Amino acid sequence: MSENILDINDLRTSFFVEGNEIKAVDGVTFQVPKGKTLGIVGESGSGKSISALSILQLIENPGKIVGGSINFKGEELTEAKNSRMRDIRGNEISMIFQEPMTSLNPVYTIGQQLRESYKIHEGLGKKEGTKRAVEMLELVGIPSPEKRLTQYPYELSGGMRQRVMIAMALACKPELLIADEPTTALDVTIQAQILELIKALQDDIGMSVVMITHDLGVVAETCDYVAVMYCGKVVEYADVETLFDNPKHPYTVGLLNSLPRHDVDQDELVPIKGNVPAPDEMPTGCRFAPRCPHASDICSKLPGLETQEDGNDVRCWIYTEEWDGEKGVKVYDRESTT
Ligand SMILES: Nc1ncnc2c1ncn2[C@@H]1O[C@H](COP(=O)(O)OP(=O)(O)OP(=O)(O)O)[C@@H](O)[C@H]1O
Ligand code: NI
């Protein structure tokens, strides 16, 4: 058994708006084994970004972590002091944010910010720091890096800014990198280059990664484990081969059939019927039941996340003794989907 660098258990993060509690993250459990990459997938609004921000204790009012635990290398982050969290965010866990403007300081040039990071983490002086900054900008695919160093974040295009952010996040050689849709805004070549860079750093320093993405092709290429989220809950967690070869939750199967994958033609994609329920119309039982082609009476109760024979953890009644629907239901039919 490998050791987990991150172990999240029953994490709950809510927003309190006009007297209502919106349960953005509603009992999330997953692990990131040391040196490995966990992918988090799920439709928009399923709580992926809020889970990531919760790990770093970056949830702001009216949001709040209301329960559960976040264990990072044996340390409970939900109880960590602000000063300790600042230390962790600067040195041990880096995040590439979905919205790039948020983590670059608008009043310093790109060069000043990168050099500062190399100074803090590796004690590099101005000259050496500049050299490293140029190398790093080259690695993330930024043309004429010397010129970029003298520019401010607002002077760069969105795609350039995202690449600078990635360079910044990797500069401190974090033990854990949380990447929230790191490459969606970038073109395919740069995207591949950046995923390569993350992989190289992973091999080099044993970095662990949490990769949030909509792209199942990216998951297949970069992740070792996958957590599938729906309405604030993990509905399936498995190693990447098991998830693609033998998905169990009807939502996972729906995603595999509906989201872009590099190994499936675009015209074979089948969208999942219906929409994600609004927060005030959240089913009390299985959150996916209203959209599930297999739903039965028992689905009005919430199933637990249970480990199956193949090793997937699945939150679905079909795989329990209590299942009262069609026997031997074939949730995933490879013949008809690939
Ligand atoms: N500031 C906020 N105030 C109220 N509710 C919020 C706020 N931020 C997030 N939420 C709630 O949390 C839910 C999960 O948001 P989150 O950003 O984690 O989704 P996501 O899975 O990252 O989606 P996407 O793929 O679009 O990035 C949202 O659907 C929304 O209901
Ligand atoms: Ni998000």
Key traits:
338 residues, eight-stranded mixed β-sheet, binds nickel (II) ion, transport, ABC_transporter-like_CS, translocase, nickel transport
Describe the fold and architecture:
The protein is an alpha/beta fold. The protein contains eleven helices and twelve strands. The strands form two sheets. It has an eight-stranded mixed β-sheet, sandwiched between helices. Strands 2-1-4-5 form a four-stranded antiparallel β-sheet. The protein is globular. The mean pLDDT is 91. Bound molecules: adenosine-5'-triphosphate and nickel (II) ion (NI). Adenosine-5'-triphosphate binds next to strand 1, strand 2 and helix 1. It catalyses: Ni(2+)(out) + ATP + H2O = Ni(2+)(in) + ADP + phosphate + H(+). InterPro entries: AAA+_ATPase (IPR003593), ABC_Ni/Peptide_Import (IPR050388), ABC_transporter-like_ATP-bd (IPR003439), ABC_transporter-like_CS (IPR017871), Oligopep_ABC_C (IPR013563), P-loop_NTPase (IPR027417).
Termini gap: 33 Å
β-strand percent reads 15-25%
Report the average pLDDT across residues: 91
Radius of gyration: 21 Å
Which strand order spans the largest sheet, edge to edge or round the barrel? 6-7-8-3-9-10-12-11
Q: How many helices does DSSP assign?
A: 11
User: Structural class, please?
Assistant: alpha/beta
Task: Write down the overall geometry.
Answer: globular
Report the count of strand segments: 12
What's the helix-strand series? Answer: EEEHEEHEHHHHEHEHEEHHEEH
List each distinct ligand once.
adenosine-5'-triphosphate, nickel (II) ion
Bin the helical content. Answer: 25-40%
| Main sheet: strands, sense, barrel | 8 strands, mixed
Low-confidence stretches are none
Keywords: ATP-binding, Cell membrane, Ion transport, Membrane, Nickel, Nickel transport, Nucleotide-binding, Translocase, Transport
Protein name: Nickel import system ATP-binding protein NikD
Subcellular location: Cell membrane
Family: Belongs to the ABC transporter superfamily.
